[in-house]
Amino acid sequence: MQTENTGKPILWIVIPCYNEEEVLPVTAPLFLDRINTLTANGKISDKSKILFVNDGSKDKTWEIIQKLSKENPHFIGMSQSRNRGHQNAVLAGLMEARDVCDITISIDCDGQDDITAMDKMVDEYLDGAEVVYGVRSSRTTDTFFKRFTAESFYKLLNSMGAEVVYNHADYRLISSRVLNEFASFHEVNIYLRGMVPLVGFKSSKVYYERHERMAGESHYPLSKMLHLAFDGITSLSVKPISIITTFGMFVSAVGFIGIIWAIIVSVLSLGAPGWASLICIICFLGGIQLISIGVIGTYVGKIYMESKHRPRYIISERTWQPYERHYKG
User: Fold this and answer.
1) pLDDT, tens digit, for every residue of 254-284?
2) Theoretical Cys-Cys bridge with 237: which of 30, 50, 160, 287, CB 3.0 to 4.6 Å?
3) Which residues contact 80 (CB under 8 A, 6 or more apart)?
4) Residue 38 belongs to what domain range?
């Protein structure tokens, strides 16, 4: 474990930001207060930082981050060259931090995740855990639809063979040791909730209550949540292709039985041919084929994107000089 001379671990809180000009002035002081509290309690080094990752925001988010960085040395920020999505923004911050800190905690900037749970996360790390997952203790604040779809999604992922932590999003502590190993994962299609458990190492969980967003509007509508869910499944498991193969064999068997039945009916003149049954069969098989082609096409598209080896993020600006990144030790 690499720490400063006092033996206290250096913590970097990694916070992805996209169009957060309304909530950032509200939550930034809360993050700073948590850093100061952990430092005062002797749990982390006073060299710890709060890293805001601007994910190509179109509002004044980056200007606010620059202002915060000038006002307090604990605040630092970096800006991506364009919007690349939440998962890439978190990854960019983690990879930026891994060489200059001992532990990172990733958290959204909207204030919904309980910031005080960081204390327990750090305690778990000091007790030997290399990864600490922030897990929601309940979903009472969610609507029935959101609660049902979220819980179904986690169950579906696990049934597909993907190792994910139930009711865990992207609020987690990861040590630099784990991040150094994680850096060898070069996937372009990123789903951190399922990728982090693949690294291994000792892990634990901290449970907390999720609150309402403190300001602004959510940037994760239903369409984005569905896209993230589908992307997570296809990034972590090939079981959908196996399901398609199995279902295809089943439909073929049913179709073969139908052919035999049609021949018998025709030979024995037991019934008149009908358009309704024919159209139903054609539409059913056509729909199955299109869905199957779509799922397989998704996997082919992911292979295509992976083969390009494009960078997962590009940093255009930082609020600190590059040489300052190597102050640890």
Assistant:
1) 666 666 766 666 666 655 565 556 656 776 6
2) 160
3) 53, 54, 55, 56, 88, 89, 92, 313, 314, 315, 316
4) 11-236+310-326
